Amino acid sequence: MRRREIARLSLRAAGALLVLLGLVHLVATPHIAALLNGAPPRVRQLALGPTLLNHVLVGVLLVPLGFTTWLAASKNELGAAWTKPTLLVNSLAVLTMPALVLIFMHQPRYFTAPLFVAGVALATAAAVVVAVASWIVGSAGSRDP
After folding, report:
1. What's the gap between Cα 54 and its chain centre?
2. Per the structure, how many domains does the chain have?
3. Confidence (pTM)
4. Residue 91 domain-assigned?
5. Cβ–Cβ under 8 Å, residues 33 and 52
6. Which domain holds residue 42?
7. What are the tens digits of pLDDT across the range 66-99?
């Protein structure tokens, strides 16, 4: 199998992983409220709505991010003018995910939650695959090295 085809299939898989990550985010949302149980009542009351909204928004936004990555890597669309900038923007967005998790979620207790660990693993795998495969697809142009 040629390198460009492997990259294309990897992008399709990464797109599916991003959609799955969005769904994991949405499934995990009901568990977020329990994280605020130890907070003072007023803090919990003020933080719960924005925290849940943020979690739902991220989940919802990951679905189209994954879908456009998956779609851009389809055989029929890969050479289209819109695919290269889409894959570039999606790659940059996905590459920020693991770094942002490490910056903001540095407390060890988060890494004991199975859904959190699954989400971090999916985000990291998707980031590496999307970046490398997008580079291969973009650098190959119309030829396959």
Report:
1. 15
2. 1
3. 0.80
4. yes
5. yes
6. 3-140
7. 999 999 888 888 778 888 889 889 988 988 988 8
Is 145 domain-assigned?
Answer: no
pLDDT digits (tens, 9 = 90+) for 126-141: 888 888 888 887 776 5
Residue 89 belongs to some domain of the structure: yes
User: Per-residue pLDDT tens for 40-62?
Assistant: 999 999 999 999 999 999 999 99
